[in-house]
Each structure stands twice: as C-alpha cells, then as structure tokens.
Specification:
Order of helices and strands of chain B: HHHHHHHHHEEHHHH
Distance between the termini of chain B: 60 Å
Strand order of the largest sheet of chain B: 1-2
Strand order of the largest sheet of chain A: 5-6-7-3-8-9
CATH topology of the largest domain in chain A: Rossmann fold
Number of helices of chain B: 13
Shape of chain B: globular
Number of domains of chain B: 1
Oligomer: heterodimer
Largest interface: A-B, 47 and 43 residues
Largest sheet of chain B: 2 strands, antiparallel
Strand content of chain A: 25-35%
Radius of gyration of chain A: 21 Å
Order of helices and strands of chain A: EEEHEHEHHHEHEHEEHEEEEH
Radius of gyration of chain B: 21 Å
C-alpha cells in the first residue's frame, strides 16, 4: 500500500525527513507520533503526494508519485486532511464537499450528491450542509475537512492531526468513524495525542528530528517504559522526566532508584521516555516535564 | 528508484510536470462540470449587484436631471443597457472572475484540492469555461436587449446606429474582463492589485479614448479596449469615424486580447507550456495586426 525508503526531504538547510523508511499495507490505522518539528507533517505531505522528496524512493498504492500519470492515479484513490486548511470564501458546507467531489471526478450529479450526503453524515454535518462555512465552528470545519477526505471511499487515508479542535465527544465519534474506515483501507494519522493512538492504532511510529525512532504496536511502545515508571513524593535526580500529578504524587520516568513504587507504563510514558532519551542524546541534557 | 531526478522539485517542494496529461476518461466532463459551477459562482458574485446598482444610480441621475423629459423611455432604457453592458458589467466581471478564481487558489485552500486528479491546469480551464458560459452569456443577453430596444428610439437619438459587429464587442469585452480576472488571480494574487487594475481600466480607458479639446468638443483617441467611451460621447458608428469599416478589426483585436489573457492564466499551471506559448505568440501577432489595422 505504501512504501518509502531512505526518504530525505529538506526545507532550506534543515532536514525535515532524514532517511525515513516505512512500509504499511492492508487495513488498519498507522499512527505517527512526534513532537513539534519532528517531520510529521512533511511525512504526511509526502504520503499525500503534495510534497516531492529530495532523495529516497516512494511508492503509494503500487505507484510512483514522481510519474505524473501514476500520481493522478494515486490521487484518485487517496483521501487527505491537511494540518492547516482554509476554505474558499462563500461556500456552504455542502457546496464545498460537492466542489471537491467534482475535482475527484464524481461526474454523475445524483450519485455525487448522494456521496456528499453520505460523507457529511459520516461526520455528523448533515443538518449543517446548507450553512456557510464561515459560520461553522472550528471543530465543525475540521469535520468538514475529514468529510471531503472520505469522498469516494479512498484506499489510503492520510490524516494530519485531524483531532485538533475537536471536543472530547467529537473525538470519540471521529475515532469511531476512523476505526470503521480502517476495516476497509489503510489510515495514516499523525497526532500529538497519545490517547488517539492508543484508541485507534494497531501500529505506531515515532518521529523525532526527521528520523524514525520507533516502529511497533502501541503496546510495544508502552512496553519500552516497562519497569521505568514510578511514583514518589519528590522528584528523584535520576528521573529523566518527572511531573506532579493531580493526586499530588510525582510520576517519574527513567532509571528508578531501589525501593521505588513501579507503576504500569502507558503509551505516553513510552513515548516520552523515547523522545526524552533522544533529546538527551542530541542535546546533552535531560528532558523534564513540568506539571 | 533514485532520488533527486530532474522535475522532482516543484513549487513549494511539491511535484511539477505534466500531471494533467493525458485526460482521463472523466477529465473533459470534470472540466465542464467545474466550469458550470464556476460560472454560477461568478454570476452570483456581489460585484454584479454593484454593477446593477451603479447602472440604476446612473440612470436615476439622468432621470432626475430632467433629461428624461426630453428623451423617450426607449432612449433611457437604451442608455441603461449600454452603461451596464459596456461599462459596469465588464468591470464587475473582472472582479467576479478574479475573486472566484482566487477563492480556491489561496495556498491554505489549495492543499486539500491538490490531492485530487484535477490539477491546476484543468481548474484554470474550468474557470475560463466558466467565464464563457456565465458572464459572456449574460453579455450576449445584454447585447440582444440593446439591439431589440434600439429600433424603438427616435432616429435623432441614433439608437439604431450600432452595428452587430460593434454590439458583439460587449460580449467580447466581458470575456476579456473575465479572463483578465482569472489571469490576475493566478499571477498577481496580491492585495490591492485587483483594485489598481479596475481603476486603471476605468480611468485609463476613458482618458485615452476621449479627451476634450480647448473648445469643449470631444476628441476621439485610439480605442484600446471596447468602444464604449466613443459610444457614450457620439452617436456615430465606428465606420463613420474611421477611414475604413473597421468594426471587424476591432472585434478581432478584442478577441485577441481576451485570448491572450486566457493563455496567460493557463500558463501559470505546471504542465506543458510550449503549445500554449506558441498559441500565445500566434494570437499576439494577429492581435497586433488587428490593432494596427484598427488603431492605425
């Protein structure tokens, strides 16, 4: 479904992707986790055929996006939600999705309108189809973007931070929609939200400073912190990362001192440990998260 | 596969190359459908309401100035249609086409639309088609109304003096205005540019085409665009003003200018440029010849 090998992409002198290799196929959700500036959006843009790579090989849906006809073929079978997207002025929600549907070559009017209604229903915007986009809330606009990505039942769905701006209830519904879609296609989702990854993804990769740090199941990533998460009354100098919880205890990640109370790690612990360790390696200092 | 091959790096780090070739089975139909959508958006653009309002105001000023008592209703209707078709509507079309084209070409909007099989070249083609099937059709309607109203006026008003070739310039001016608006949206989508162009068309057009001599008489200069300024100040046909019956040349000249604007708009999109450049060069030569023959 998607194969990228040793991909390099630079902006100016800065490498946004630095030798990333990734393969995914079949159905399911692949999560891409990483801090700001890790290269997540660049990776998403490469997977969405928006950005061309400087070096390395990319194959999507069995085609080479460098070949114009192949690229068009990929785009016929691809859905994409960009991280930041504006909307054309003056459109209603229905008109916008209908416009994108025409761009996606849905030429039969009745079938197209049925499809537009279907995707609007999938994101629960059916009743707001006639409303001008400028009058929609941020969360509704985000759902509208997701709706246009669902047009034509794509085989590859690339979602760049799709849950930003959604309230908890909307996020739950979004997860429901995506998990249903993932039964039929490959979904790649980039996010800061480890809860989304835990809830949705069968596989997760961690990007940091343009490089792939980890690739495995969410349980694998959480397992990386096994035996390295503990709580205590005070911050231990040996902790790589520590923060005070709502209960008043300090949750700490790193090398636990003898006699400490170990707690089961979460995906977030594994992720933070990985990123923290990498930052320590790169910066020569240890990361610390304040409560 | 190796990296860094020629043609990989496009604008904003994206792909370049002939993404639109060849047309898929649904390609032409998509352009046609999109063209209809764009036409509808152009026709519903508020700039058209402004053009209508400006025409109503201008006609109201004629009526309230007392001139309407000396003129029959047919003359007033003729003047209103002439003002709308030759002055306000073409300018409104520049604005409408520009804003419609610009609405979907902003960077933030474009990214989601990039990931579709219909790329910028086809979207621009659809916009050009939209100008042709929307505003130009209305322009033809205005032209036909003018032709229909003309015979009802008294001979002294010279209403029937406009020939078909002259009246056709209304539609062509609207076409040119629309394509110019699209080209501006593609090439110079900066704040203020559209306003400057509209002001330039408004003032430049009238100032160049007509001037007042020291004794107050109207002097006709070369008509670089439509012939509306000379129509407004003179009842004579163009043939009567020129040494040759040159309406056709002026029409060819205007069609040439319009097509050049369309070619300019299409040239902005990634893809094969050579055929467009060759076509543009041919059109430019024809337009130049027509300009020499018409403007002398």
């Amino acid at each position: 479904m998607l194969e990228i090998q040793n991909v390099v992409k630079s902006y100016g002198g800065r490498r946004a992707l630095d030798g990333v290799t990734l393969t995914a196929g079949g159905t399911g959700v692949l999560g891409v986790l990483g801090p700001n500036g890790a290269g997540k959006t660049t990776l998403m843009r490469v997977l969405a055929t928006v950005a061309a790579v400087d070096a390395g090989a990319v194959r999507l849906l069995g085609r080479d996006p460098r070949v114009p006809d192949d690229r068009t073929g990929i785009r016929r079978r691809l859905g994409y939600v960009p991280q930041e997207a504006g909307f054309p002025r003056g459109f209603t929600a229905f008109e916008y999705v209908d416009y994108v549907a025409i761009l996606k070559e849905h030429v039969d009017r009745r079938a197209r309108h049925d499809e537009v209604r279907r995707v609007l229903a999938a994101v629960e915007l059916t009743d707001l189809g006639g409303r001008k986009i400028r009058k929609l809330s941020g969360g509704m606009r985000r759902r509208l973007l997701i709706a246009q990505a669902l047009l034509g039942r794509p085989e590859l769905l690339v979602l760049d931070e799709p849950t930003v701006g959604l309230d908890p209830e909307q996020r739950l519904r979004f997860r429901d929609t995506v998990s249903e879609l993932a039964q039929r296609c490959t979904v790649v989702i980039s996010t800061h939200q480890t809860e989304d990854v835990s809830a949705l993804c069968s596989r997760v990769v961690v990007l940091h400073q343009g490089r792939l740090l980890a690739d495995g199941s969410p349980a694998d990533l959480a397992g990386a912190a096994d035996g390295r998460v503990w709580t205590g009354a005070t911050r231990h100098p040996g902790a790589r990362l520590a923060w005070r919880t709502a209960e008043g205890t300090v949750r700490q990640i790193g090398d636990p001192p003898p006699g400490s109370v170990l707690v089961p790690p979460t995906l977030e612990d594994g992720y933070l440990l990985l990123i923290g360790a990498e930052s320590a390696t790169v910066d020569g200092s240890e990361g610390q998260v304040a409560a | 596969m190796t990296a860094g091959r020629a043609g990989l790096a496009g604008r904003a780090g994206g792909y370049s190359g002939r993404a639109d070739r060849p047309f898929g089975a649904t390609g032409p139909l998509t352009v046609r459908l999109l063209g209809v959508t764009e036409a509808r958006r152009m026709l519903w653009h508020p700039a058209n309401a402004v053009a209508l309002a400006a025409t109503v105001l201008a006609v109201a000023s004629i009526i309230f100035s007392g001139e309407s008592t000396q003129r029959p209703p047919a003359t007033i209707a003729y003047a209103a249609l002439l003002l709308l078709g030759t002055v306000f509507y073409p300018l409104a079309t520049v604005v409408a086409a520009n804003r419609v084209a610009g609405a979907t070409s902003r960077r933030s909007v474009r990214e989601a639309m990039t990931v579709t099989p219909t790329q910028e070249r086809r979207r621009t083609m659809a916009l050009c088609l939209g100008v042709l099937t929307g505003p130009v059709v209305v322009g033809v309607g205005i032209m036909l109304l003018i032709a229909a109203v003309g015979p009802f006026g008294p001979n002294g008003d010279g209403l029937a003096a406009r020939t078909l070739l002259e009246l056709l310039q209304i539609s062509v001016t609207v076409l040119g205005g629309g394509l110019l608006g699209v080209a501006l949206a593609r090439w110079v989508a900066f704040p203020g540019v559209l306003a400057l162009v509209v002001l330039g068309l408004w003032f430049g057009h009238f100032a160049v085409a007509t001037t007042l001599s020291t004794d107050g008489a109207v002097v006709h200069g070369p008509a670089w665009l439509g012939l509306m300024p000379t129509w407004l100040f003179s009842d004579a046909t163009m043939a009567a003003r020129s040494p040759l019956p040159q309406e056709m040349w002026h029409l060819v000249y205007l069609v040439g200018l319009s097509l050049l604007a369309g070619v300019a708009a299409l040239l902005h999109a990634p893809g094969r440029r050579r055929p467009l450049l060759l076509a543009g060069a041919g059109i430019a030569v024809l337009t130049g010849v027509a300009a020499v023959l018409q403007l002398g």
